[in-house]
Amino acid sequence: MSRARSLSYYILARLALAPLMVLTITSIVFLLLRATPGDPVDVILGPKASPATKDALREQLGLSGSLLKQYLNYMGKLFHFDLGTSLATRGQGVVEIIQSFFPATVELALISLAIAFIIGLSLGSFSATRPNSIFDLGGRLFGIITYAVPPFWAGMVMQLIFAVQLGWFPIGTRFPIGIDTPTHITGLYTLDSLLTLNFAQFGTAIYYLALPCFTLGILLSGIFERIVRVNLRQTLQSDYVEAARARGVVERRIVFAHALKNALIPVITILGLMLAALLGGALLTEVTFSWPGLANRLYQAISARDYPTVQGIIVFFSTIVVVASILIDIASAYIDPRIRY
């Protein structure tokens, strides 16, 4: 079987399994939400409401009847791309919530990932070309520490130092209160301000993004640093690199023009998965920095027992991760000719 044909079969199989994976995640979330203690009707009406009032609201919200009936009801709406209506806001659709809050998460994720990639690639390359040196040891420690540090703790420490003690950055939020936000085009404040040529708003958006993005970027950079360091070191010991050295090719050209390209193949895979995970919600970072993103909105929905919002956001996030994983597998297969399916 040719490589192109086997790859086609693999892509078709992954595409066929994608809806099943999303459906499985949705079903698990549906059951777990209803298995946990608490009742959203009590949250909305309070404990002193009469049983008749509670039953009427439960019927109105679709929370009455057996668990199977609720499940089939929800799945029927989901197959028609209806994610439901928020219980907490009473009237706002879950799709509207996603449209309102997701751009903030995208902006935070993209800039954080760019910072992580630049730092990780630089440190990983630097330490890999200096094996068993103090720089190599420092790179290892950096990768371990940044991977082990809890994001919420790092966020609070960064806020305490740079926002509270030094006063260099704001503690939270996305834009200062009382100042007009950029004209809505994409929902990304940095991009919208550039599209409207409002550089003052662009500077403000970057200023408010700096601390949470830098914190998250530093924590993620350790993953890239470790992968780049290990793969680049292995690549530098390969036969074709030794042959290039024997021909008198400059070491700097060997590293950046030959070895680094092959060492970045697994990094591309991790880059895509990290982006999917970040778009799926840097929950602890958004909550710590009061960032008005979709992950923070998910946290609020969980606290309020807002079943439709929680389910809708998780369906959205899981779809992103599933689609991203399929695209990464396809891209890796085309980039690396050694991959066979």
Structure summary:
The protein is mainly α and 341 residues long. The protein is built from 15 helices and no strands.
Show unreliable segments. Answer: none
- DSSP helical segment count: 15
What is the H level of CATH, i.e. the homologous superfamily of the largest domain? MetI-like
Strand content: under 5%
Describe the overall structure.
By secondary structure, the protein is mainly α. It is 74% helix and 0% strand. Helix 1 (3-35) runs antiparallel to helix 15 and helix 8 packs across helix 9. It is globular.
Index terms:
2 domains, 15 helices, mainly alpha, MetI-like fold, 0% strand, globular, 341 residues, single chain
Give me the secondary-structure topology:
Layout: H1 3-35, H2 40-45, H3 51-60, H4 67-79, H5 94-128, H6 134-148, H7 151-165, H8 189-195, H9 199-236, H10 239-246, H11 251-263, H12 265-279, H13 283-288, H14 294-303, H15 307-335
Helix pairs in contact: 1-15, 5-6, 5-9, 5-12, 5-15, 6-9, 7-9, 8-9, 9-11, 9-12, 12-15, 14-15
